[in-house]
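Severity: low
Component: inverse-folding endpoint
Summary: output formatting inconsistent between runs
Steps to reproduce: submit the following structure tokens with default settings.
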């Protein structure tokens, strides 16, 4: 299974970003995908999760109302793609964001929120 995140970057406070996580090499129809983030001096935080049926986990309190997780509903059995829409970004959202597809991790994508 190959997991790749994309969409990170440098934005100003209040702006938005959409992260993507694409997983390939998995043939089962059921999966769970999670977004985590880590930053220096902080423990890894589970941001949100979603399964192949579209059921989502609770969002981290720090991102509730600002972040939305969703999945690509296209009938694509080669790639599974999950998105993390991040609105009203704050400097404290600065972190490396990682995607986990079942037990497989991506390499992470850096999000920096700074003026």
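Observed output (run 2 of 3):
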């Amino acid at each position: 299974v190959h997991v790749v995140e994309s969409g990170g970057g440098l934005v100003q406070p209040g702006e938005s970003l959409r992260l993507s996580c694409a997983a390939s090499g998995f043939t089962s129809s059921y999966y769970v995908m999670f977004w985590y983030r880590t930053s220096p001096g902080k423990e890894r935080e589970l941001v949100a999760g979603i399964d192949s049926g579209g059921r989502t986990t609770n969002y981290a309190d720090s991102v509730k109302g600002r972040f939305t997780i969703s999945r690509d509903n296209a009938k694509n059995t080669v790639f599974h793609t999950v998105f993390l829409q991040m609105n009203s970004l704050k400097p404290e959202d600065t972190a490396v964001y990682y995607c986990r597809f079942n037990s497989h991790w991506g390499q992470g994508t850096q999000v920096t929120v700074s003026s």
